[in-house]
Automatic annotation (TrEMBL):
<keyword id="KW-0808">Transferase</keyword>
<dbReference type="GO" id="GO:0016301">
    <property type="term" value="F:kinase activity"/>
</dbReference>
<dbReference type="InterPro" id="IPR018209">
    <property type="entry name" value="Pyrv_Knase_AS"/>
</dbReference>
<dbReference type="InterPro" id="IPR015813">
    <property type="entry name" value="Pyrv/PenolPyrv_kinase-like_dom"/>
</dbReference>
<dbReference type="GO" id="GO:0030955">
    <property type="term" value="F:potassium ion binding"/>
</dbReference>
<comment type="pathway">
    <text>Carbohydrate degradation; glycolysis; pyruvate from D-glyceraldehyde 3-phosphate: step 5/5.</text>
</comment>
<dbReference type="InterPro" id="IPR015793">
    <property type="entry name" value="Pyrv_Knase_brl"/>
</dbReference>
<keyword id="KW-0418">Kinase</keyword>
<feature type="domain" description="Pyruvate kinase barrel">
    <location>
        <begin position="2"/>
        <end position="325"/>
    </location>
</feature>
<keyword id="KW-0324">Glycolysis</keyword>
<dbReference type="InterPro" id="IPR001697">
    <property type="entry name" value="Pyr_Knase"/>
</dbReference>
<dbReference type="Pfam" id="PF00224">
    <property type="entry name" value="PK"/>
</dbReference>
<keyword id="KW-0479">Metal-binding</keyword>
<protein>
    <recommendedName>
        <fullName>Pyruvate kinase</fullName>
        <ecNumber>2.7.1.40</ecNumber>
    </recommendedName>
</protein>
<dbReference type="GO" id="GO:0005524">
    <property type="term" value="F:ATP binding"/>
</dbReference>
<dbReference type="GO" id="GO:0000287">
    <property type="term" value="F:magnesium ion binding"/>
</dbReference>
<dbReference type="GO" id="GO:0004743">
    <property type="term" value="F:pyruvate kinase activity"/>
</dbReference>
Length: 451
């Protein structure tokens, strides 16, 4: 078993039940639904399939609802796409029109007020780079000039680096989607384009209003404002997703790697969940094996001790969804053995509450006595122990709901219920054999046992 968990995105390639069953067997921990696409009927069917497979296989794969967020996109084009050539001057309007190479529309009218002449506008993940060269007050349109040639398809993303965009954080669609998530009982909300702690708190307030405070909120860091306000966002959220797609458009690509290490470390030190996402084995959308660079990227997330890595298009729409899941698992498992987990313990420890103290002592005891597993009796203690990244696996005895929440936690493999036989079975599944030592930990005691 590997300690680094896996989030995978459901989509046309992975949602057939026979394929998803094999993906569950391969070790998927969290099934993500991207609410930028699809309707409630489609997502409801996916939720039903996940729950049926959990029942059939005895798994506890969790559900994550990923919001569309306050994102700007182009609208549609004639024939589904147009080619904008270097040097072209194009009018951008904010009412619905069918786009051409002379004029197309963007879905956010407030962009006219947010930009100035000279502002850089990046379209389609930055593949089309343009400059605002005019603002036309009469019809509230802007004119952009292309720096390069690119073919744009329908509904491509628009980014404006180093510019404050004043879109409201919670759109009506996002509010309705979150309410839907509360009603059907998802486990996590991944909140797109979070810029401040207040954005996170607004989602938590909405969940509370609908009696769904138990749903955990994962803040996606996707723009410069999110980076600038990282500390307050970590404090407000239950976890962080380092989402490198849109973020890689907003900031310089050479800054992504060192920023990733900073985000992972800060989030881990706060005891919050940290997910590394986007383009991890992107080439596996079309190829059965990843590039060597992609393998190194996934391994690097394991070396940094992220709680989880994530598959997006590779599992949702690629040719090899099951192979991508298996490959991610193989990479993290092969490389976790080279991580010096003791390095993660001592920089974290500052005398805190009783549970923190017990978690710290359990981690130290596990390292000192070469313990294979740490059995704990509640979900809170499991999360506290996981924060210190012990080399041993963490086995909490919890409820089904708690088990799904813990599915994102580094090294945590829950047992539902309190039966000794179930704990023994889990120990065996984690390759604990006769004569191996394990810890039994409660909120006030750490005890070494021999299997």
């Amino acid at each position: 078993m590997e300690k680094t968990k896996l989030v995978g995105t459901m989509g046309p390639a992975s949602e057939p039940k026979d394929i998803l069953r094999e993906i569950f067997k391969a070790g998927l921990n969290v099934a993500r639904m991207n609410f930028s696409h699809g309707d409630y009927e489609e997502h409801g069917a996916r939720i039903k399939t996940v729950r049926e497979l959990n029942e059939e296989l005895g798994t506890n794969v969790a559900l994550m609802l990923d919001t569309k967020g306050p994102e700007m996109r182009t609208n549609e084009f004639q024939d589904g796409a147009v080619i904008i050539e270097k040097g072209d001057e194009v009018k951008v309007v904010f009412e619905q029109v069918l786009g051409t190479k002379e004029k197309f529309s963007i879905n956010y009218p407030g962009l006219y007020d947010d930009v100035e002449v000279g502002t850089v506008l990046l379209i389609d993940d930055g593949y089309l780079q343009t400059d605002v060269i005019a603002k036309n007050a009469k019809d509230r349109s802007i004119t952009i000039k292309a720096r390069n040639t690119h073919r744009i398809k329908n509904r491509r993303g628009v980014n404006v680096p180093n510019t404050k965009i004043n879109m409201p954080f919670l759109s009506e669609k996002d509010r309705n989607d979150i309410i839907f998530g509360a009603q059907v009982g998802v486990d996590f909300i991944a909140a797109s384009f979070v810029q401040t702690a207040e954005d996170v708190l607004s989602i938590k307030a909405l969940l509370k209003e609908h009696k769904a405070e138990q749903i955990q909120v994962i803040a996606k860091i996707e723009n410069q404002e999110g980076v600038d306000n990282l500390d307050e966002i970590i404090e407000a959220a239950d976890g962080i997703m380092y989402a490198r797609g849109d973020l890689g458009v907003e900031i310089l690509p050479e800054d992504l790697p060192h920023l990733q290490k900073e985000v992972v470390e800060k989030t881990r030190q706060a005891g919050k969940l940290i997910i590394v996402a986007t383009q991890m084995v992107e080439s596996m959308q079309n190829n059965p094996v990843p590039t060597r660079a992609e393998v190194s990227d996934v391994a690097n997330a394991a070396f940094d001790s992220a709680d989880s890595v994530m598959l997006s298009g590779e599992m949702a729409a690629g040719k090899y969804p099951l192979e991508a899941v298996k490959m991610m698992k193989r990479i993290v498992k092969a490389n976790e053995k080279y991580v010096d987990y003791d390095n993660f313990v001592f920089p974290l420890y500052v005398s805190a509450d009783d549970i923190e103290n017990v978690a710290f002592m359990a981690t130290i005891s596990a390292s000192t006595h070469d313990v294979r597993a740490i059995v704990v009796d509640n979900a809170e203690l499991a999360g506290a122990v996981s924060k210190y990244r012990p080399q041993a696996f963490v086995i909490p005895t919890v409820t089904h709901d708690e088990a799904r929440k813990l599915n994102l936690r580094f090294g945590v493999y829950p047992v539902v219920g309190k039966k000794d036989a179930d704990v023994k079975k889990k120990l065996q599944a984690l390759d604990v054999v006769k004569g191996d030592k394990y810890l039994v930990v409660t909120n006030d005691k750490v005890e070494i046992k021999v299997f």
